[in-house]
Write a structure and sequence with these properties.
The structure holds two protein chains of two kinds. By secondary structure, chain A is an alpha/beta fold. Chain A has one domain: P-loop containing nucleotide triphosphate hydrolases (Rossmann fold), CATH 3.40.50.300. In chain A, 31% of the residues lie in helices and 26% in strands. In chain A, helix 3 (108-118) packs across helix 4 (123-136), helix 3 packs parallel to helix 5 (152-164) and helix 4 crosses helix 5 (152-164). In chain A, 46% of the residues are buried. Chain B contains eight helices and three strands; from the N terminus they run H-E-H-H-E-E-H-H-H-H-H. In chain B, a hairpin with a 5-residue loop joins strand 2 (53-58) and strand 3. In chain B, helix 1 packs across helix 4 and helix 2 crosses helix 3. Chain B has two domains: 3-81, Arc Repressor Mutant, subunit A, CATH 1.10.10; 93-184. Chain B is mostly helical. Classes of the chains: A alpha/beta, B mainly alpha. The A-B interface holds A 45-50, 193, 207-210, 212-216, 218, 220, 222-223, 227-235, 238-244 and B 1, 3, 30-36, 39, 114-115, 117-130, 132, 152-153, 156-157, 160-161, 184-189. The complex binds adenosine-5'-triphosphate and magnesium ion.
Chain lengths: 244, 204
């Protein structure tokens, strides 16, 4: 039997993204290399405008790079037609948008079940999975509430439930704790962590060091470039401060 | 950390000998601040000299057992009742290092900040992992250790936020002095307003 390395779920190879042209062009990302393996949780931190959302959008196939390649489970996104790309996004990729992106006229459960139903999952089964996802984010009792009758933090949790419903292999979350209090934010980290522990590749964009610290790897981005990376050592010695 | 008061507090529970005190202390603080046994014995000698503990003699197995005196109990009570003294201001090597770095020519402060940020993040990742593992199979004795971990997590988080602020301030100084070549955006969650350097106008 051959030795299997860690399974690569997401690969960004020399990815650049420039918005606009000529004198007003903005280089949002510059030759970024990044891979996320199955079971790995990666956090992305960086100043406002450094390219975090741009990075996530490319990883989720919502945007295409100006140059470089994006691969999800070794499939080059550039080679996919619109339909194939949409199917990949529905089945394999869970995405939490910075501004939620929920359908206001649908209930929480309907919003969460939507990608499953679009993908042909029978309505009842999709509903069951949706309620289960809402339970994981702590709001099963709000399943039938309409979006515009929910608080910002509640909507944010619905958006997270929609990203983890079914067994998504790649979960991308852009500031998913912005509208949450610290206990709820902690709960969201537990959900993302357990998804990674169950084998998903997770990428989180956050401004909160406390949340980023749940990741196996924290990537620091500045002006569209990855400038550094912190990997947990799991070294008990770090816990030892000198006695006085 | 006051070893003296920590040992006294443990003796308030029940009489103990030196090695027991060390094990008990480390168990309750997750071995975060390891005690060396010599330190324990020296401290017990001093407490005995000051009348805060009494030497009860051997337990028949070669251990010298100590118990707390009335004066010792009063001392512990006073310790718990008094807020922890802040050395004024607390000595902070990181703050000193950065303060010197920004005022000396030829020092790449941005690089120092990022190196520290990465190191602090690693520690924060490890604390967070320990906290998660401990909470997952929590024993009664872990309550104290979880509190210690929470404290370390908050301190490290504060350090990282402070580094972000330092970076934003420096950026602003660079912009103000017209150094356009390395213009960067303000850092994580720190608005330009928060980062405004103290000047005569806005100090008030
Ligand atoms: N559609 C767009 N058109 C033009 N410029 C864009 C577009 N999207 C992003 N940008 C620019 O690209 C850069 C990176 O933006 P991005 O949204 O990735 O930042 P971010 O790191 O997510 O910031 P924040 O923390 O504020 O969300 C910014 O300068 C932004 O103005
Ligand atoms: Mg963003």
């Amino acid at each position: 039997m051959s030795v299997q390395g860690p399974q690569q779920v997401l690969e960004l190879a020399k990815v650049s993204r420039t918005f606009g042209q000529g004198a007003t062009a903005v280089a949002a990302l510059r030759e970024v290399d990044l891979t996320v393996n199955a079971g790995e949780f990666v956090a992305v931190m960086g100043p406002s405008g450094s390219g975090k959302s741009s990075l996530l959008a490319l990883a989720g196939g919502l945007d295409r790079p100006t140059s470089g390649g994006v691969f999800v489970e070794s499939t080059p996104m550039a080679g996919l037609g619109l339909n194939a790309l949409a199917r990949l996004r529905r089945r394999a990729v869970g995405y939490v948008f910075q501004d939620f992106n929920l359908v206001p006229t649908l209930s929480a459960a309907e919003n969460v079940a939507l990608p499953l139903e679009l993908d042909g999952v029978p309505a009842r089964k999709a509903h069951r999975q949706a309620v289960d996802a809402l339970r994981q984010v702590g709001i099963p009792e709000l399943a039938h509430r309409l979006m515009d009758e929910m608080s910002g933090g509640q909507q944010q949790r619905v958006a997270i439930a929609r990203a983890i419903v079914g067994n998504r292999r790649l979960i991308l979350a852009d500031e998913p704790t912005g509208a949450l209090d610290s206990t709820t934010g902690h709960g969201v980290m537990e959900v993302l962590r357990s998804r990674a522990d169950a084998g998903a590749a997770v990428m989180l964009v956050t401004h909160e060091a406390r949340h980023a610290a749940w990741a196996d790897r924290v990537v620091f981005i500045r002006d569209g470039r990855i400038v550094d990376e912190a990997t947990a050592m799991h070294d008990p010695a770090v816990l030892l401060a000198p006695a006085d | 950390m006051s070893i003296r008061h920590s040992l006294l507090a443990l003796l308030q529970d029940q009489p103990r000998y030196g090695y027991q005190l060390r094990v008990e202390f480390e168990d309750r603080t997750g071995s975060t601040w390891p005690l060396n046994i010599g330190q324990v014995y020296t401290t017990l000698d001093r407490l005995d000299r000051d009348g805060l503990v009494s030497n009860d003699g051997g337990d028949g197995e070669g251990h010298v057992v100590y118990s707390i005196t009335e004066a010792g109990r009063a001392e512990v009570q006073g310790w718990f009742a008094t807020p922890v003294e802040r050395s004024n201001p607390p000595r902070n090597e990181l703050a000193i290092k950065l303060a010197l770095a920004v005022t000396l020519p030829g020092v790449d402060v941005a690089a120092i900040i990022q190196a520290q940020r990465t190191a602090s993040m690693r520690a924060l990742q490890d604390y967070t992992k320990s906290r998660r593992d401990t909470a997952a199979n929590q024993r009664a004795a872990d309550t104290a250790w979880l509190l210690v971990l929470d404290s370390l997590i908050f301190q490290t988080e504060a350090e990282i936020r402070w580094l972000d602020l330092c970076e934003a301030r420096m950026l602003q100084l660079a912009q103000a002095s017209g150094a356009r070549s390395h213009v960067r955006k303000p850092s994580n969650g720190v608005t330009v307003e928060e980062a405004t350097p103290l000047t005569a106008e806005n100090r008030r």
